[in-house]
Design goal:
Radius of gyration: 19 Å
Strand order of the largest sheet: 1-2
Number of strands: 2
Number of helices: 7
Strand content: under 5%
Helix content: 55-70%
Order of helices and strands: HEHHHHHHE
């Protein structure tokens, strides 16, 4: 395959599509009220689980960047999080979005947001792999035959004792992490607006 004909995926386009998808779902998030508010303890359980998912996602993204930062599209990373799935950053991003749906107290929103994110990132991953196959040949083909794309296989985990990471890439991931952490106050703000009946809402499970 001619590697010159296969270019790396335009990540700006991926981010734009995710943002537009979020804006499309935003009215549903804003004007719906969790049907699990009564009894309130059910909503509280979902909310706590959602916060846990978001924090887990942020930590997972940092873990992934420690391994791939500075090495992306330069080598076939197969250690740490990349030993259990080929796109751990996409895995943890999906987990973070699932957390937002849980914090809103809605199973429907959790599934909708998670599925939408997973589909977009899966399509992106497939396109990225076209470049990686062209760039690394059999090395990547062997890797993808052994390791799942996004859904992890924990039994495959392995890592080296030492990892060289890029401080610049780690800083960049810090700002990405702020987006996920912003889900927490965003969900709290939406909950307050609905509890105060500042907008008309409908019930959603």
């Amino acid at each position: 395959m001619n590697t010159q004909a296969v270019k790396p995926v335009n990540q700006t386009l991926r981010i734009t599509i995710l943002r537009l998808s979020f804006l499309a779902v935003l009215p549903l998030m804003l004007f719906s009220r969790s049907a699990w508010m009564d009894p309130e303890w059910m909503f509280d359980i979902l909310e706590v689980m959602g916060i846990f998912f978001v924090i887990f996602a942020v930590l997972g993204r940092f873990w992934s960047i420690l391994y791939i930062g500075g090495h992306k599209n330069r080598t076939v990373m197969q250690d740490g999080p990349y030993s259990i799935c080929r796109h751990p950053l996409y895995l943890f991003s999906t987990i973070g979005v699932l957390g937002l749906g849980m914090m809103l107290g809605s199973i429907v929103l959790t599934v909708l947001l998670g599925l939408l994110t997973f589909v977009i990132l899966s399509v992106t991953a497939r396109k990225e792999e076209q470049f990686l196959r062209a760039e690394f040949g059999d090395s990547y083909k062997t890797y993808e035959q052994r390791v799942p794309r996004i859904w992890p296989d924990i039994s495959l985990f392995h890592t080296r004792n030492y990892v060289e990471f890029s401080v610049a890439h780690l800083k960049g991931n810090f700002f990405d992490a702020l987006v996920f952490l912003a889900f927490i106050p965003l969900a709290e703000l939406m909950e307050w607006v609905k509890e105060e009946n500042l907008i008309a809402t409908f019930l959603i499970y």
